[in-house]
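During the first year of the project, the team set up a workflow for recording each protein of interest as an amino acid sequence followed immediately by a discrete structure-token representation. This format lets reviewers and collaborators read both layers of information side by side without switching files. As required by the reporting guidelines, we include two representative entries from the current panel. The first entry is reproduced here exactly as it appears in our internal archive.
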Amino acid sequence: MKSRLYFAKIWGIPIGIHPSWFLIFILITWSLATGYAPLASRQIDRILIWALGAITALLFFGSVLAHELGHSYLALREKIPVKNITLFIFGGLAQITQEPRSPGAEFRIAIAGPITSLLLALFFAVISFFLQKTPLFHISFQYLARINLMLALFNMIPGFPLDGGRVLRAIVWWWTKSYYRATQVACLLGQLIAYIFIGMGIISTLTGNIMNGVWLVFIGFFLHSTASASSQQTALQHTLQGVKVSQVMSRDLIKVSALTPISQLIYDWTPARGYPLFYITEGDRPYGMITLKEITAVPDRLRRFTSTSQIMVPFSRLVRVDPDTELLDVLNKMAQAGTILLPVMEGEELVGSISQDQIRQYLQFKSATG
């Protein structure tokens, strides 16, 4: 979900729209304008009905945003950063950068969204009650009350990645004292529920309700893929827990001077030395770093005349780790920095590097050896 349009910031959290949001916005507006709102009065101007349908659709997505802000507010209270919130075809997603540190924090963050939706359902229901004499507005707010109630109830289904699955994970985590086991249980239930949705969607399609059936199948596949990815991610975290950089890092350092031509780097490198990685040094002090990304950016004809200092990434801009850093922290730092490798420093001394390939090889070795 990388392609998104950011339009606001709330509490420092960027709020974005995925392109798929426009499709569901149009469908909801069309549904309200052609199927629901006209029931209020057949004498009302069609332009007004379509405008009200669009406004109601916007209020619905505002409710989804409020749901995600409920999660985000509690996450920030727990000192957990929130990278962004994205509205997309299946609703909304708050991207929290790290997992809660305790079952209590997990429970509070997870339950905040459904509680927010329940409060919104009550709020819209009260407005709808007082607008009974204006049927068109009454029906719009009644729709918002119902959809928020459905949003709260749907999200409380006890399967990951739904809020109910996270609540379940918090309870199992508290009971077993194992975050890994709790996540596996919640993800397994999430996959089971996904299959139920897919089955219901197929049956609905075969009995003639094609639109609802296709929608249920899409939801099922989304839930299954997310639950599976979360299960694999947790298994990865479980395997890497307690493993430090010093156990996986490469200590093979290729140091070159700042005046070395790029063509010389290409000539000197051999595949046996792993990923192309060169450190530019001034005496014993690291000055910069060059990887395949920087090398390939230089045209062939200019490599003889381009020195390492001209294309290197200055060392002051690099994220670094020390040999005692855990691999889970390394992966987080790589993701935040947008890189696949990091230099390893012991005090002020450059002692090696750690890459995603090395971590992947370690995981393959652990998998092969049980």
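The second entry, processed by the same pipeline in the following quarter, appears below.
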Amino acid sequence: MEDSKRYVRLGLFVAVSVLAVAAGLFLLAGRKWFQPTFTFETYFDKSVAGLEIGAPVRFRGVPLGHVTEILTSAATYERDAPIQARRDYVVVRVEVNLSASEVAQIRKDATALAQKGLRAQTQLAGITGQQYLALDFMDPQKYPPLPFQWKPKYTYLPSAPSSAGEIVAKTQAFLASLNEADIKQLGQNLNVFVSDLDRKLDELPVGELSARVSNVLGNADATLRHVDGILRAAPLDHTLRNLDSASVRLDALLGDPALKAAADNLAVTTSRLDGVLGDNQYDVRTIVQNLRVVSENLRTLSEAVKRYPAGMLVAGPPAKVPLPGSSR
């Protein structure tokens, strides 16, 4: 009886443990099983070396999902096709992990976006050399979909050559376009350039330039020593200390409450004077005019005193004396 109870307890413990582990796994990763996803595939007719499974997929820098499979069209869709008719594309499948509404919207608009020019392109991630898949809108006439005869398992999104691949292809095309005569001419031009450069270097007055540089460096060293001596001189140090002391005194003077009070009083006086002048502007103008009249009278009186000093003090101007032979 005891053994049967023990077995029942052990069975319950095992069942509870299994349920707990299953619940933990569901909480950690089970949500992804029910998360809506959208899978599309694209084809490349060039190498995608550096693109790995799990590489990120971005639309203009915005994360969308990751690469789930990298296959060949020969092994996926062209098993029964003759070797001469096989395309030998690289099939890259991508899983988009977004919210349910976003996934539904992408699934609905995928075909229209591809017709508008949405293309998949491999790009390098910084200086590491690792590639990721970038989605962006391009000219659909310049980058048409690759031709194929099979029915894609998932929604098909056309691709575009990578920028690095285009640079390599253009470089290879340029090198291939060069013939033997062009290469020979290029070598001759390079030899002429090197010879001219070597001759110009020989014509440079290296000794004279070296002497001038040495002279300039010597003068600079002497100037630096002279400046260092001036900076270390006692009068300069004394002047700097006096300047520091004067600065402290000036700071104390500016912070003196008496100076602040005097400045406030001056501001009040100026304000009052401005008010008085504004209220008596007409009287001030009359006084100024009277002062001008008085000044003119004083100037006339001063000139008269200069001409007839005695007459101004005793009587009027002296009588005129008739000259001999005159009628008067």
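For the second entry, the following points were noted during internal review. The chain is about 60% helix and 15% strand. The chain has three domains: 32-161, 172-203, 205-282. Both points are flagged for discussion at the upcoming steering committee meeting.
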